[in-house]
């Protein structure tokens, strides 16, 4: 007789979200008439050029400095402020509608979303330092911007401000989740709040067995007191027909011990392994945003095979063979490469929903962090059209992706003598062989991209999730909507 330990025994449930309430508005007003705490002005290096009398030549800065008696020009000269990216100068002023004014550099030019996200983050830091409750953002170079670009620029600045004020704002409620039951409960809560466009189904362990998801079950079924939860959240537009069906698949390992290939030693980062559900957090964050926007003409399937990767006497062992839902067999030569085993069955399931395109997101490999560092995600796809779509969406969102090759010749290193494949290859090219593994479980008629977000999904210095990928996914969905 199997006994399950109550999953909440001795542990604390997550507390209520303390995400700030922020209101954004676009206004066409004279900056000198704005009433609030901090007036933030974004400037390029060209904007802060002065004439022979040490006066700004930029019209907005010239107007602003006139009412300040030349204080801005004087301070920028004294502090060697040249408008370079990352530079900032904030002054306390009196006799005006606003209490403080600041100049924030964006470099030689600012035409990429990443620059505006960075501007927003810098402004947020200054607002927090000065305890500002209200702030306004103006761009000294706004006359150089097209009307078409301004909504995207405003959106990027807003994203940066939210990131800067509260790094984990988008995914706070998900990043602190300890247990599978709570992850599923959060998804059900999102579906209830947006029941006009979202529906959710949570499959239990018996149903997962019926679906023959042996690759997924090998990770979780016998090794943890917390049963697996296979989550399917579906978005359907509030009206009109559907012209595009999309799939978003996230890795949902709520804690990763490594299994019998235990994460050991000071560099293993086992203490941060709640973030191994970062892919799941991202797609559910995107689901919530999409449910707010309600794009037409597009149906989206959000799929997560959620579980823990734990150790027990009955847990999966190195050398075990598992069978995925499509009948392919996998020799497990490393129990710490568990995410791809769960994703295999999740990808197969998503293909069956009739989707034309799939993006999967996963904190999958340390190899990708080694290759691209902590701020850039790796993108893998054999499809040029999808690559163009997603990389363009990332460009608009300001999130950093870099396309890496799917080198088919590396698949030879993944062959097994006793099964169809191994679950890991050699240490070299580990991010590539992981992508090749996932590719085996995607229908050839489905366009597919794998995003390895192991680096940028987590802010190591602050020990918080970043919500990386949400903005890119939303942008991608909107471009596929009618």
TrEMBL record:
Q: Which residues form the Cytosol aminopeptidase domain?
A: 334-341
Which residue ranges run through the membrane? none
Task: Please give the GO cellular component terms listed in this UniProt entry.
Answer: cytoplasm
Annotated InterPro entries: Leucine_aapep/pepB, Macro_dom-like, Peptidase_M17_C, Peptidase_M17_N
Give the GO terms filed under biological process for this record.
proteolysis
UniProt keywords, alphabetically: Aminopeptidase, Hydrolase, Protease
Hey, which family's this protein in? Belongs to the peptidase M17 family.
- Say if the entry is tagged with keyword Membrane: no
Q: How does this protein assemble? A: Homohexamer (dimer of homotrimers).
PANTHER family to which the protein is assigned, alphabetical: CYTOSOL AMINOPEPTIDASE, LEUCINE AMINOPEPTIDASE-RELATED
What Gene3D superfamilies does the entry give? Leucine Aminopeptidase, subunit E, domain 1, Zn peptidases
Which PROSITE patterns does the protein's record reference? CYTOSOL_AP
**Could you identify this protein by its name?**
Cytosol aminopeptidase domain-containing protein
Enumerate the GO terms in the molecular function aspect: manganese ion binding; metalloaminopeptidase activity; peptidase activity
